[in-house]
Write the structure tokens for this entry.
Amino acid sequence: MYVIELALKLNPMPVSVQRKNLKDAEALYQQLRHCLEKGNPRFIELNCEKVETKKITVIASEILAIQIYEKTASSLGTKRPGFSFDS
């Protein structure tokens, strides 16, 4: 499972969506990145793979950062997001 996490302006909690495989996660990451670079579209709709009717729309200009990481079955539940010297 892969997590795509968005940091939004003035929001202490990130918005995240999950994708089952790396190809789909990378495609969503690139789509979001392209929207930030070009400024289009103004709104970005993200959906849940498991519950198709579950959706969220964010304003593209409010996104500060996007990260992608693999969710694992370790005791913590996920790899440490962001960048770190620790593995």
Summary: The chain has one helix and five strands. The chain has a mean pLDDT of 83. The beta strands are 2-8, 15-19, 43-47, 55-59, 63-70.
